[in-house]
Design goal:
This protein is mostly helical. The protein has helices at residues 3-20, 22-26, 30-37, 41-66, 71-87, 95-121, 129-153, 169-179, 189-208, 239-244, 247-253, 260-276, 284-318, 324-346, 364-386, 388-398, 402-434, 437-456, 459-496, and strands at residues 354-355, 360-361.
């Protein structure tokens, strides 16, 4: 890759990484936000659900535009919009203001998914897509962790002083409001810092980011230079009827159920850690146990799931198994269920040294044994979960033509956001009713995981035909481009004579 192209790619990915940090700035400080604005998790669930739906609609609209206009310009728009909106968080004093500003942020974050995957699909070789999308997923995950660290660095609430064993979630929240009123408004500052950074990087993208040639990385177009590859095909409204008739698209796109459980987990992970698991980021003992959990689950989840499984799928594709990615994603979606269910059933509490929803109290040695078992089960479940996304996105690319890919990824992401939004909203109300975050996640994972299997399994029987159809069309187009090039070269020779 040329130096200019590398700089272009780095700036492009950096800006998207900053924008997608948005959600990670809210999740760690939900307790602060609820206490500061005088709201509870049902309203936070509604806000998160509305945010996800808005981001999905934005993804749908800009996904269609991704197939029509330069992706660079769409990203610049998103960068300025999100940066300005992030800075505005400093002026929030009421929940309705937060609600509106979060919806505007959702519009900006919704642009990133179709733009990023369409851009990468034209930069990275078609043989390495799962690996490239895994790297992208890893970059955004690191960005989320970085944003979470920034957010938590401003959260000075001493959770170790809160009696999570005997107090309900609402009682613990009221305790924070009563005893730490001067520490509640600091959740706004991380938004301002990253908002300024986003505007600076957006300006750099204006001058240094280059738009890649569409379909330039397709294997069927190997041997055709970017100058000769004038890929003029663009999506038309009439194409939508055709591409939605492709069976693999239906099963890949319409399965919203496999993300409802994870939507609850992501939406309420920090209240779960602080208020239900009894972990305080200021207590060395509980923080050590949390770090051990993250280390074990992180190695299994990110290393094995985010990289190992996608690399394995790419090797299968290079070896001739052209539909390996969709099959690997399907297998992962089925295997993650038992491990996650058992992990959340164990339900530990660090402060009280209990497991299984408080049913068993243990000593320190027994705690570490069960804690490590919990970490391993959670890590294996996350490994299969993280193995799905890179192969799922790659499968959507593989079974669609280049001019349709932004739209299809946008549609898939939109349906995905509906599932996550349902998870956030349903989870919020069930947590209020049951006063249990772990129990809510457990039952949601079981029920919706079983339903989602009905969408994954048919892909074993539909993906071969759809891939062959797309490959045949692309091969025909490559032959037409080469024939046109030969005719132009011949005409140039004649004219020179």
């Amino acid at each position: 890759m040329k130096r200019k192209d590398l700089i272009s790619l780095i700036l492009f990915l950096l800006l998207i990484s900053i924008i997608v940090m948005d959600g990670a700035l809210v999740l760690p400080n939900q307790v602060l936000i609820a206490a500061d604005l005088g709201i509870y998790f049902d309203l936070i669930g509604v806000m998160i659900g509305a945010y996800i739906i808005t981001a999905g609609i934005s993804t749908l609209i800009f996904g269609y535009l991704t197939d029509l206009v330069a992706r660079k310009y769409l990203l610049i728009f998103a960068g300025f919009l999100w940066g300005t909106d992030a800075i505005m968080h400093i002026f929030i004093t009421e929940f309705w203001q937060l609600f509106i500003i979060r919806l505007i942020a959702a519009v900006a974050t919704g642009v990133t998914t179709p733009v990023a995957f369409s851009f990468l699909a034209d930069v990275v070789s078609s043989d390495s897509r799962s690996k490239a999308f895994a790297v992208w997923g890893f970059i955004t995950t690191l960005g989320g962790i970085f944003a979470g660290i920034i957010a938590l660095s401003f959260n000075k609430i001493p959770y170790e002083k809160i009696d999570v064993e005997t107090g309900s979630i609402k009682e613990n929240l009221n305790y924070i409001i009563e005893h730490y009123p001067t520490l509640l408004n600091t959740w706004r500052y991380p938004f301002v810092i990253l908002g300024i950074a986003a505007i600076i990087v957006t300006i750099l993208n204006i001058f240094f980011t280059r738009e890649p040639v569409r379909a330039a990385s397709e294997k069927v177009f190997e041997g055709i230079s970017e100058e000769d590859l004038q890929y003029s095909y663009k999506i038309h409204i009439s194409d939508l009827k055709y591409i939605f008739k492709r069976k693999s698209n239906f099963f890949l796109i319409m399965n919203m159920f496999d993300v409802i459980g994870s939507g609850i987990l992501v939406a309420y992970i920090f209240p779960y850690i602080n208020l239900e698991m009894g972990v305080s980021f200021g207590d060395p003992n509980s923080l050590t146990k949390l770090l051990v959990l993250l280390l074990i689950a992180g190695i299994l989840g990110f290393v094995v799931g985010q990289f190992g499984i996608p690399i394995w799928a790419d090797k299968l594709v290079k070896g001739g198994e052209i539909t390996a990615r969709v099959k690997v994603a399907t297998i992962c979606s089925l295997l993650n269920l038992p491990f996650l269910l058992i992990a959340f059933w164990i339900s530990p509490n660090v402060r009280a040294s209990t497991f299984f929803f408080g049913a068993i109290k243990v000593n320190e040695t027994q705690f570490w044994i069960l804690w490590i078992l919990f970490a391993i089960l959670l890590g294996v479940g996350l490994a299969f979960t993280f193995g799905i996304a890179p192969n799922w996105y790659s499968s959507l690319i593989d079974v669609n033509l280049p001019e349709h890919r932004g739209t299809m990824i946008a549609m898939a992401s939109f349906v995905d956001t509906i599932g996550r939004a349902l998870g956030a909203v349903i989870g919020g109300f069930f947590i209020v009713m049951t006063d249990s975050i772990a129990g809510t996640i457990l039952w949601a994972t079981l029920i919706f995981g079983i339903i989602s299997s009905a969408f994954w399994i048919p892909l074993f029987y539909t993906c071969n035909k759809d891939y062959e159809e797309v490959h045949s069309i692309m091969q025909k187009r490559a032959e037409e481009i080469l024939a046109k090039k030969r005719d132009n070269d011949a005409n140039n020779i004649i004219n020179e004579d």
